[in-house]
Design goal:
149 residues; elongated; 6 helices; membrane; transmembrane; DUF4760 domain-containing protein; 81% helix; transmembrane helix; single chain
């Protein structure tokens, strides 16, 4: 009888461990979905800013910008930089898919190209100079390469 109880206890323990493993996998999947969701919400907020302030997103030569518009342009870059860095961190930790990360890099490249054409990309250098410790980040390398090129 004791052996039977020990076997039942061992079986219960194994079933409990399997259930805990399942719960952990499920929690990880939920975290992945939530992270992707938050990334897309960040992009949605950015797009709302473009809808609400289209003048800020209409590229023109930097010489035509007022000081207020330049400050807004810097804020726009801070916002995009935060999104891009969050995407890189999430991707390197396996929290977003490669597709989402590649979308982020493509968006970054497109924005950099557009701002290079207008000359507003020069505003980015002073911002990047404040954060030399981010130099190992892929998105920072991409931006630095474009600023140098």
């Amino acid at each position: 009888m004791t052996k039977l109880l020990e076997l039942a206890g061992a079986a219960t323990l194994i079933i409990s461990l399997i259930f805990i493993g399942y719960e952990i996998r499920l929690a990880n999947r939920i975290a992945l979905v939530e992270t992707e969701w938050e990334m897309f919400n960040s992009y949605a907020a950015y797009n709302e800013m473009a809808i609400e302030q289209p003048k800020l997103f209409a590229e023109r030569p930097i010489s035509e910008y007022t000081e207020t518009e330049i400050a807004s342009k810097r804020s726009q870059f801070f916002r995009t930089l935060n999104i891009w860095l969050a995407a890189e961190t999430a991707y390197s930790n396996g929290m977003i898919s490669e597709a989402t990360y590649l979308i982020t890099l493509a968006d970054a490249q497109a924005l950099i190209t557009t701002q290079k054409e207008s000359g507003t990309v020069i505003l980015w250098q002073s911002i990047l100079d404040r954060y030399p410790f981010l130099g190992d980040k892929e998105i920072i390398k991409l931006i630095a390469k474009e600023l140098d090129g």
